Amino acid sequence: GCAVVKRALTSAGISYNEKDIDKSEVMEEAAQLGIRGIPVTRIFNDEDVLVESIVGSTPQAVSRIIELCS
Predict the structure, then answer these.
(1) 46 φ/ψ angles, rounded to the nearest 5 degrees
(2) Confidence (pTM)
(3) Helices (H) and strands (E) in the chain, counts
């Protein structure tokens, strides 16, 4: 899951910040946001406004992530 998304982002030259769901503060943040699956890719614009959250690492999800970040 997560490795697939990371490889795709790296291959596309897209920078990202990774959060470890095993850390309690990240787990709390995910719960507050209603996130129930991983990986979750949250895409923000240049003004740091959330554009979209994508759950999963299917080819369709990865394509959408790359499309939004390009």
Answers:
(1) -65, -20
(2) 0.82
(3) 3, 2
